[in-house]
Specification:
single chain, alpha/beta, Rossmann fold, 3 domains, 6-stranded mixed β-sheet, 4-stranded mixed β-sheet, 17 helices, ATP binding, ATP hydrolysis activity
Length: 515
């Protein structure tokens, strides 16, 4: 890829707008660009020699068998190529859709039958036709010779002449056969490259789409799908209910008309709190998950985020973390160093055991800027009950492939230790304790509260409700609710809900039996 595409890529990445397009950008960069480069690189080497072979061997055939036979062979080639083109599936379109739907078997069957068997047999028939179809004029030549007195006829002269003629034609047949097979192989490779060229056209289409998207992003152009009506107004799920006076007053004073997503961007303001004011949420494919999201989280408002898969939880966190742009409304958020993200599968960097805990800091930053020693790190590991890992893995300076050496639970504990080391104001916890026991989970959340870290937690464990005082719940149909969380009442409501569902199911079963 040229310098312009590289520049576009890094500019948009630094700007934090590596966002969703009409296709998976990561898949195109990681897979399709590699396939495009490979196909383009092998195209010359796979085409140059077969073309040269075709020219050389066809010239030799023309000199030996004449233009009529060469024309017949060319007709067979055109016929087989036409059959392949008619019967070959549209590989270019399929590659552009990322899948070829396993039609290589069908193409290979047609290719082998037409080229290997049909064309090979026809070529052999063309070479053998002069031997078996032409009458050997031995007697006529003898009679001409005897009438003119050019030579004397002996009893063995006819047999000798017949042997010379047959031997000469057999020699020519073998030579022509070898030339024909070599030419057939060259033409076969050229015909096979037709499929590679079609695949290359598909890869070229996807790479060109990628470059176009990068250029559009660099020019601040972004076209999304039209906002669809996914759900009706729901009295439970609708506009947010912000329970803090500050949040209410701010939303009243700063409410703005709907932003045109095709021409404008939302506003981002650095603050000491988190506030979404009419911010739309999109999926990676461009579908609108939420028309407008409005809620506020201030220090101390530990918020539980619930909702089905694909409702917009992760998309909201990506916008909050600066990975995705804001395409409408106003977003207040702290600086990057004050927000920490803990995913379900933590990132283990290349380096020492110490680097895993202090990531992304270096040892120098730990000692000089944070004024933290290895003993302090050991105390942090002791909190998450992972103190023994230092001696078990060979000390702080041991270097390993940590993702392979550590279990899922150990990696989640190291991620929590990383959180306690940095001590941010806000922490986004996305199923970050799914692989640890409930006792370790209790210790982690209790210590986070003691450090004054405001938590935004994505989890369906009821055991975590007591560590949160607010809830943001998505219904998966474009609606949401943001309100205070009272764990005891919520558990009571859930139990009542399950009881009513069981009674309803029992009533339906009885009605079905009677009816």
């Amino acid at each position: 890829m040229d310098a312009n595409s590289d520049s576009c890529h890094f500019n948009q990445q630094l700007a934090g707008i590596f966002t969703a397009a009409s296709f998976s950008t990561i898949s195109v960069i990681a897979v399709d660009v590699q396939k495009f480069c490979h196909s383009l690189a092998v195209l010359y080497s796979n085409l140059a020699k077969p073309i040269l072979d075709c020219i050389v061997y066809n010239t030799m055939l023309y000199r030996r068998v004449g233009v009529e036979t060469l024309f017949a062979i060319s007709a067979i080639i055109q016929l087989s190529t036409g059959m392949l083109r008619a019967l070959t599936p549209p590989f270019g379109a399929l590659v552009a859709q990322e899948q070829k739907l396993e039609l290589h078997v069908f193409y290979g069957m047609i290719e082998d039958f037409v080229i290997k068997y049909f064309w090979g047999a026809a070529g052999l028939l063309v070479c053998a036709a002069p031997v078996f179809a032409t009458r050997i004029p031995i007697v006529s030549e003898i009679n001409k010779g005897s009438g003119s007195g050019s030579f004397a006829l002996t009893p063995n002269s006819g047999i000798k002449m017949a042997g010379d003629v047959v031997g000469s034609r057999a020699r020519d047949f073998v030579t022509n056969r070898r030339i024909l097979l070599s030419a057939s192989d060259a033409v076969g490779r050229i015909i096979y490259m037709y499929k590679e060229i079609v695949l290359l056209s598909g890869y070229t289409l996807r790479v060109s789409d990628l470059l176009q998207v990068l250029e559009d992003i660099d020019d601040s152009k972004f076209v999304k799908a039209r906002i669809g009506e996914k759900s009706q107004e729901n009295p439970k799920y609708g506009a947010s209910n912000t329970d803090t006076d500050i949040g209410k007053s701010y939303l009243k004073e700063n409410s703005e008309p709907k932003v045109d997503l095709l021409s404008e961007r939302g506003k981002i303001i650095n603050s000491d709190y988190i506030l979404f004011n009419k911010v739309p949420i999109y999926s990676p494919t461009g579908d609108v998950l939420l028309k407008e999201l409005s809620f506020a989280v201030f220090p101390g408002m530990n918020t539980l985020v619930l909702g089905p898969n694909g409702c917009g939880k992760s998309s909201m966190f990506r916008i909050l973390g600066g990975l995705w742009p804001v395409y409408g409304g106003i977003l207040h958020r702290p600086s990057v160093d004050k927000i920490f993200y803990l995913p379900q599968r933590p990132y283990m960097c290349s380096g020492t055991l110490r680097d895993q805990v202090i990531y992304p800091h270096s040892k120098f930053e730990m000692l000089e800027e944070k004024n933290i020693t290895d003993d302090d790190l050991l105390k942090i590991l002791d909190i998450v009950q992972l103190k023994s890992i230092v001696s078990r893995e060979g000390g702080w300076d041991s270097v390993k492939e940590w993702r392979d050496c550590l279990s899922g639970g150990d990696m989640q504990r190291i991620a929590m230790a990383r959180l306690f080391y940095h001590k941010p104001k806000f922490a986004i916890m996305d199923e970050c304790t799914s692989a640890v026991s409930m006792e370790i989970e209790r210790i982690m959340y209790a210590h986070s509260s003691d450090l004054g870290i405001t938590m935004l937690t994505v989890s369906h464990r009821q055991s975590l409700w007591k560590y949160h005082n607010h809830i943001l719940e998505f219904d998966g149909q474009g609606g949401y609710i943001f309100t205070k969380l009272e764990p005891e009442k919520r558990i009571e409501y859930l139990m009542e809900k399950h009881k009513l569902e069981e009674q309803t199911k029992l009533y339906e079963d009885l009605e079905e039996r009677l009816g």
